[in-house]
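user: Kindly work through both lines:
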Amino acid sequence: MMLARHAENLFWAGRYVERAQDSARMLDATYHHSAGLAPEQAAQAWANLLRSLGLELEFAATGDELDVSTVTTFLIGNVARPGAIG
């Protein structure tokens, strides 16, 4: 028999994994879309990704440039940020 608190923890763990997968898919799609674009258009694609994730203001506060490297690091590698994939 499973305790209610264990069931709740499993539920939330599943939600966090699902959110990480969704963010990773969006990151992958934006990466492939922006690969053939001019730098200005690619920056706009990355801005659109951050806007759709509700993170444009948080990213703007870092002062980093909008490109594949900085956005990827922000979404995946920044373990100090709650909600980072990595």
Observations:
- The mean pLDDT is 88.
